[in-house]
Write a structure and sequence with these properties.
15 strands, alpha/beta, seven-stranded parallel sheet, two-stranded antiparallel ribbon
Length: about 375
């Protein structure tokens, strides 16, 4: 099926549509066991504290840090996804300041990656307290260390809704409770009077192995050919392979602090049209692209999806998903790419790795 022409408002021609890289950059090394590739500069090992290192991005980050030779401590209330990460894990809730401070004082981190948080949109703000209180506790726990660590704080692109044109790093328009908690976390950093250097990374629609929800939603629906796109609609979106955002986070931690402290960077690959990502996964899973349907039909199906989800049934499409699949949702990732370079995997490499992981981890659901 031919691609629709992009709207004139984008200022794009067919030949200038953003493209995910198709060639791997030179100068990377593969990390055994995760198919991850990161820069490994010839720098001394560091003491690195990771909060939330047992989660999706955290699993990949801990792997990359260990491969770099860093001394890693992962604090999380959840056991690591990978058994080999168990020796580096401490069962700890960062909402508890005395417990956190005891670990910080003992470990004396040089770098902290703050990934701890709850991203499930079904939770209310009280359940997401770790997104704000956890960060405040980190700042308090590290305030009197003799050598202040560099704090890399993970926020989210959801500090603004799809289509909103952000005017600056402290301009927000969150549309979910989760996004609102991330806005509050950023405001905590901007208001902090302490001396700790910090950098904000806002991941944008990150995907890859160990994603917590896509195996039971997007990838499941693609595999069963339940997923559909609106005929003639193919918006630009910012996606980020998990290896890309890990590379960007580590690069920020290795950069000259004077150049990155107090700044915000989006974590993502270059924007692409939605069908490049959706059809890429559909073809890898089923050998066929996603089916297209007129908006009127999908709108009716989205209401049925709402009813199905309320009674615990599957909902390949609902009102929220229909809104998102028709909306452009891009972020300004160019400063990140200029500062830290491109991610280590091509789009197809990332898709292949993820599909292999799905078929290995969920063999009954995703069959070859």
């Amino acid at each position: 099926m031919a691609r629709p022409e992009p709207p004139a408002s984008r200022g794009l021609t067919r030949s200038s549509w953003p493209k995910f890289r198709t060639e791997r950059p030179a100068g990377r090394i593969a990390i055994e066991g995760m198919n991850d590739m990161v820069d490994v500069p010839a720098s001394a090992a560091r003491r690195v504290l990771v909060t939330g290192g047992s989660g999706f991005i955290g699993t990949h980050l801990v792997t990359a840090l260990l491969a770099r030779g860093d001394v890693v401590r992962n604090v999380d209330i959840k056991r690591p996804n990978l058994p080999e990460h168990a020796p580096y894990w401490t069962d700890l809730d960062i909402n508890l300041l005395p417990d956190l401070k005891a670990v910080v004082d003992e470990f004396q981190p040089e770098v902290i990656f703050n990934l701890a948080g709850i991203a499930d949109l079904a939770f209310g703000e009280e359940a997401m307290l770790v997104n704000t209180l956890g960060l405040s506790n980190l700042l308090e726990a590290t305030a009197d260390l003799p050598n202040l660590p560099h704090l890399i704080h993970t926020s989210s692109q959801m500090i603004a809704k799809p289509g909103y044109k952000i005017k600056g790093p402290q301009d927000y328009d969150a549309y979910t409770v989760y996004g609102e908690t991330k806005v509050k976390s950023e405001k905590i950093l901007y208001a902090w009077q302490g001396a700790i250097p910090w950098t904000i990374i806002r991941p944008a629609n990150i995907w890859g192995p160990w994603h917590p929800t896509m195996p039971t939603s997007t990838w499941k629906y693609l595999d069963r050919r339940w997923y559909m796109m609106v005929t003639g609609v193919d918006p630009l979106r910012s996606y980020g392979n998990v290896h890309t955002v890990v590379h960007q986070m580590i690069s920020a931690s290795l950069a000259d602090r004077a150049k990155v402290a107090g700044k915000m960077f989006y974590g993502a690959d270059a924007a692409m049209i939605t069908s490049d990502w959706i059809d890429g996964f559909a073809k890898a899973l089923t050998g066929k692209p996603v089916r297209r349907m007129p908006f009127a039909i999908l709108s009716a199906l989205s209401w049925l999806g709402e009813i199905s989800s309320r009674v615990g049934g599957p909902s390949p499409i609902n009102r929220g998903r229909l809104y998102r699949m028709r909306s452009e949702y891009t972020v300004d990732v160019q400063p990140t790419l200029d500062a830290f370079g491109p991610g280590p995997l091509t789009l197809q490499e990332g898709i292949n790795e993820t599909v292999d992981w799905l078929r290995t981890r969920f063999p009954d659901q995703f069959k070859s």
